[in-house]
Amino acid sequence: MNATMKSEHRAEQVAPISIVLPTYNRLKTLRQVWPSYLGQAGVREIIVVDDGGTDGTQAFIKAQQKQDARIRYIRNETNYGQPTARNIGAEHATGDFILYGEDDLRFEPDYGIRLLACLERTGGAIAGGRLVYPFPGESDEDALARTAQPPTERIDPYGIAFDASAPAPGPIEVPFIHACTLVRRDVFEHVRYDPIYKGNAYREETDFYLQAVKSGFRIYFCPDALCFHLPREVQQLGGAMAKGIWVHKYWSLRNNYIFLRRHYQFLQQQNVVKGGLLITHLRFVVAELKKIPSFYLRRYSPALYTALARQFSK
Questions:
Q1: Is residue 275 part of a domain?
Q2: 271: burial class by Cβ within 10 Å (0-12, 13-18, 19+)?
Q3: How confident is the model over 180-201, as pLDDT tens digits?
């Protein structure tokens, strides 16, 4: 073994980040975002958890393994759901930090190491970066410009969602954030993703974050780290949308109610929610049902949807 090979081997051994990428029947989108995972700095391994898929993901990842020794493939024979897939990935990870990816989201090359620097600077345990949703045909630069104005409120008190699309002057401590975060390994000694969130697993990551905060861990929004979701108009036949929009919404409503029953008092203490539990849930129900027409518009007339979305985003 020559000196260069030894140096590369040592760098791989000391790399602190394990990427965990759960997937279910989304080979089409996985192929689009895959290069961004291979190109991440500071990564010792990429763990793909195939949650019972049947679309050729296994063959694709097996072929990738021949080209990159960091890739590990775990296959669930049953579709256990996102929370269990995330836990399985964490159990197999060997890095000090676990970076969660998604099969329809791509990272900038320095996403993980920027989050790592943020955690080292703040003393936090979990960090997520800026998450931008480009329109179809929109460049990353245009999407960043469109979302450059920070919102009046980062947290929607009824949707209980954090807006990570816009920049901020520096790290912000938050009670929860989106799913694609860097998590310190020792968090999993106290908190796991809960499989009670079934179907589309809606609220599984928010539940995880609130459990972590209750256990004394701190979460940060680190806006200098950047990732991009694939346009919502890209057909997602697998993943959480595999059963259709109406079933998807049923699980969203069901899981949201379980989540509120579990965490509402704590959310009140954190000044996140307004009003009572039932009012908060009913407003969420109305907001989710209002999204259904836009789903059909995206599917059957994506050009019209994009034009309207651009107009109303101004």
A1: no
A2: exposed
A3: 999 999 999 999 999 999 999 9
